[in-house]
Amino acid sequence: MSERQVLYEVDSGIATITLNRPDRLNAWTGVMARELREAMESAEADKEVRVIVLTGAGRGFCAGADMNDLSTISAAGSTGAAPRPFTPFDPDSRPDFHHPQAYFPSVGKPIIAAVNGPCAGMGLALILFCDLRFAADSAAFVTAFSRRGLIAEHGTSWMLTRLAGHSRALDLLLSSRRVTGDEAYRIGLADRVFPTNELLTETRAYATELAEKVSPRSMRVMKKQLWDGLLQGLGESLKQADHEMALSLKTDDFKEGVAHFVEKRAPRFTGV
């Protein structure tokens, strides 16, 4: 039996999903895409999981599409296969998030990318649709598409513009230049930067804070609000917030949020 290309582990409310082709810098394959989706489904279904951390095995995060696959496609002039229908992760989420490379926003739990090394092409697309991006100072970010004769695939043009701004997105896409962890932080592509040997420890510490001290329901609703908000006007956003606030006031988590503060004790949120 071949080794799995995506590893899945749960500990103390945190699901760690690891891209697992370290000898290929975790280059992207169809098998990896399928196993990643399965891991996300497992994390979503597990009531004990409150936060998801996505990282790579070895010294890389994801070096983009496997070059053997790209060579085959180049020789044929196409993938040679009709597009497969994609089953939405959450059918009730916005249709914009019903796509193979853009379904992370419809996962109801926060996804933190721990970028431990090279992150290029498809790897970059993955982290753009995570909720937070923590990077090692040795990480390297590359769009790669222009140097392969390709275009801004997988929603990268949409997300890069929102994270880094229009001109910086153009810079990164047109040049395909290498961006360090420190620069990624300066331009908004990374939210935190840590020394390489501290990345997973610090990422886990942040995830633990969320898992132990924050309402899972609040996180789920606020994540939906913010991703939906990228596609809403102010009026629609306010209407959604008013609706969700009214629902929140009736929940056990709201009652616990008040009780633990008044009683000066650790919270015991249940997510309902």
Written account of the structure:
- The chain has 272 residues and is of the alpha/beta class.
- The chain folds into two domains: 6-210, Alpha-Beta Complex (2-enoyl-CoA Hydratase, Chain A, domain 1); 214-262, no CATH class.
- The protein has helices at residues 30-45, 67-76, 122-128, 156-164, 166-175, 181-187, 199-213, 216-229, 234-248, 252-262, and strands spanning 6-11, 14-19, 51-56, 111-115, 118-120, 132-136, 140-142, 179-180, 192-194.
- The protein has a six-stranded mixed β-sheet with strand order 1-2-3-4-6-9, with helices on both faces. A three-stranded mixed β-sheet has the order 5-7-8.
- Strand 3 (51-56), helix 2 (67-76) and strand 4 (111-115) form a beta-alpha-beta unit.
- The longest helix is centred in the first third of the chain and has 16 residues, at 30-45.
- The protein is globular.
- The N and C termini lie far apart (41 Å).
Tell me the count of domains. 2
Helix content: 40-55%
- In spatial order, strands of the major sheet run 1-2-3-4-6-9
Number of strands: 9
Based on secondary structure, the structural category is alpha/beta
Main beta-sheet strand count, sense and barrel state = 6 strands, mixed
CATH topology of the largest domain: 2-enoyl-CoA Hydratase, Chain A, domain 1
What's the topology here?
Elements: E1 6-11, E2 14-19, H1 30-45, E3 51-56, H2 67-76, E4 111-115, E5 118-120, H3 122-128, E6 132-136, E7 140-142, H4 156-164, H5 166-175, E8 179-180, H6 181-187, E9 192-194, H7 199-213, H8 216-229, H9 234-248, H10 252-262
Parallel strand pairs: 2-3, 3-4, 4-6, 5-7, 6-9
Antiparallel strand pairs: 1-2, 7-8
